[in-house]
Amino acid sequence: MLILSLVIVLFALVAAFWFFRPLRRGQVRITLTDGRSIRAPVGSNLFQVLRDAGVDLPSTCGGQGSCAQCRCRILRGAERITEQERPYFSPEELRSGVRLACRVTVQRDLLIEVPDPTDRSDKGRS
Ligand code: FES
Q1: Structural domain count of the chain
Q2: What is the pTM of this model?
């Protein structure tokens, strides 16, 4: 009887884990100021999410965090800026929410502005 009870409890735990797995993982919505909206898993890389959705930010390092060209502006939902990013920005850019997309891990819903692809300058180069 004890073994049967343990098997039932174990089965219930496995079933509960399986049932709630998608809820634990979670999804967020990334909204662009031009009206586009993208769903992405929590913990994903913003640069990769945008690229997968067809929003190509400039990059010569392929998302490795060294070219400083993948700039976007996070208007709502940003996590704290990393120390690796900070040297790339002026105080004004920091205040306005400019970030390197490849250094942003998506944690919650975001509202972001990406540069107009027809108006790209080489701001990331110094
Ligand atoms: S893609 Fe080069 S720094 Fe982000």
Answers
A1: 1
A2: 0.76
